[in-house]
Amino acid sequence: MGSVSLKIGDGTARFKRATLCSSAVNILMLFSVITTNLFALYAFTFSPKQHLDNLFHHPHRNISLISQHVSLIIKEIDSSQRKLAQMEKELLGYDTLDLSRPNLAAELKLFLQHHQLPLGKDSRTGITEMVASVGHSCEKSADLLSQYMSYKVSGPCPDDWSLAQKLILKGCEPLPRRRCFAKTVPKPGLTSLPVSLWKPVSDKIVTWSGLGCKNFNCLNSKKLSRDCVGCFNLTNGYETQKYVKARSKNDFVMDDVLALGSGGIRIGFDIGGGSGTFAARMAERNVTVITNTLNVDAPHSEFIAARGLFPLFLSLDHRFPFYDNVFDLVHATSGLDVEGKPEKLEFLMFDLDRILRAGGLFWLDNFYCSDDEKKRALTRLIERFGYKKLKWVVGEKTDAAGSGKPQVYLSAVLQKPVRI
Predict the structure, then answer these.
(1) Which candidate among 99, 221, 388, 410 keeps its CA 20 to 30 Å from the CA of 76?
(2) pLDDT recorded at residue 287
(3) Residue 305 near residue 258 (C-beta atoms within 8 A)
(4) Helix (H, G, I), strand (E, B) or coil at 304
(5) Phi, psi of 177 (to 5 degrees)
(6) Can you give the pLDDT at residue 37?
(7) Which long-range contacts (CB under 8 A, 24 or more apart) does 372-379 make?
(8) pLDDT, tens digit, for every residue of 135-189?
(9) Which residues of 387-418 are buried (b: 16+ CB within 10 A; e: fewer)?
């Protein structure tokens, strides 16, 4: 709030400037002080006639009483100023992390230190200082954040990617930058496109620290999510048929969906893309797809990159770092379910709508509906956006984990309207 970003060397900085909120707080503080002083002046100068005799007959008692009133008024002024200062601090957002607390890493203090502009306040923008970019919720995980920022400058970074991901999942996003060298993993055997799309990835070229499995055979024997069962097997199983062969009426064939695109499909965004198979199939059709993923229980990001595709290590709580109306297609599976209040899904849907161009396609692929109420709530939410329903299928299919119990899924292809 009240900040802009600027690239300086290899750092991203935010700049503090005067905002409507901070101006309003200052006006409120001034009004409070003036009102309180007027009240004090009134208390000193006005006294009913019937109390005049008491004033002259008991001067010491009245002076003491007035002193008590003045002390109470001063305490109220101090309390109001402290409360208003705290309100202003919270409105600034980035200033909530207390850098004076003990046991805070020196690197974190240095990164978050405010830097005054060398020429003073900018007359055009009101900017006064540079402030480092760090997630607002990091304040709630200050101990973990300090641990993350405890390292030797210009030395090797600790093997703590799982700690970084834990911070991200707690809302501490973006993380602060660090001045250490990340662990390098040799990646022999990488091939060029298009061979890399379907060539099995070696166990040796990914990082297994912090994960239960230590090889892809182990991962393929587990159900990592509803959309990732055996999804790292690029030679056998359903992964090789996905998007080109339908197993149920909820499975749309990719070429059929692409034919619905108005103006052509050139670039897309995949939410929770598992091992990157959606992006791989799109790459075969000369469509560039960015896959949003985290390394939850598996090295998703490294695996996708090994296939020659673009992984984006980002949680669904982070505002997507793309400009408005840039994607021709947004693809999402059950990973879209953020398991929270309905408002949380609304914020996510509005951000997806923001980055999708008018006439672009939103492909909701086998979204798991745990009950009818959830299906109705999702339907009502989608209808608020006014998308045109090009495909809409609600059907049952057997659980991919092999439980044999039929479950309800929603698949749809929706077209974003032109809004004026």
Answers:
(1) 99
(2) 96
(3) no
(4) helix
(5) -70, 155
(6) 61
(7) 375/408, 375/410, 377/342, 378/345, 378/410, 379/410
(8) 778 888 888 999 999 999 999 999 999 999 999 988 888 898 999 999 888 999 8
(9) beebeeeeeeeeebeeeeeebbbbbbbbbbee
What letter does residue 8 receive in the DSSP assignment? Answer: E
Is beta strand 127-132 parallel, antiparallel or unpaired with respect to 115-116?
antiparallel
| pLDDT given for residue 126 in this prediction | 74
Q: Please report, rounded to a whole number, the percentage of residues in the chain having pLDDT higher than 70.
A: 78
In the chain, % of residues over pLDDT 90? 41
Q: Read out DSSP for 266-285?
A: -EEEEES-TTSHHHHHHHHT
Instruction: Enter the pTM of the model.
Output: 0.71
Bond preceding residue 321 cis, omega within 30 of 0: no
Q: Pick left, alpha or beta for residue 158 (phi over 0 → left; psi -120 to 50 → alpha; otherwise beta).
A: beta
Q: Given the structure tokens 């900017």, which residue do they identify?
A: 127
Nearest to 91 by CA among 1, 189, 164: 1
Q: Tokens 């897309």 map to which residue?
A: 268
Round to the nearest angstrom and report the end-to-end CA distance of the chain: 27
Greatest C-alpha distance within the chain = 104
Averages of pLDDT over runs of 10 residues in the chain (420 residues) are 41 42 58 62 52 54 72 80 61 55 79 74 73 76 90 93 91 90 90 94 91 91 85 89 91 94 90 92 96 92 95 91 96 79 86 96 90 84 93 79 72 92
Which of 189, 365, 224, 236 minimizes the C-alpha distance to 299? Answer: 224
Length of the chain: 420
pLDDT given for residue 133 in this prediction? 73
Token digits of residue 106: 């020196």
Q: Where are the domains of the chain?
A: 100-184, 195-416
* Adjacency order of strands within the sheet including 115-116: 5-8, 11-17, 127-132, 115-116
Task: List, as own/partner pairs, every contact residues 321-325 make where C-beta atoms lie below 8 angstroms and the sequence separation is at least 24, other chains included.
Answer: 322/269, 322/355, 323/355, 324/354, 324/355, 325/354, 325/355, 325/356, 325/357, 325/358
Q: Quick one: which of 317, 413, 280 has its CA closest to 356?
A: 413
List the beta bridge partners of residue 412.
364, 392
> What pLDDT is attached to residue 3?
43
Give the architecture (CATH level 2) of 195-416: 3-Layer(aba) Sandwich (3.40)
Neighbours of 39 (CB within 10 A): 12
Name the H helices within 328-407: 342-355, 372-384
Q: Which residues pair with residue 310 across a beta bridge?
A: 290
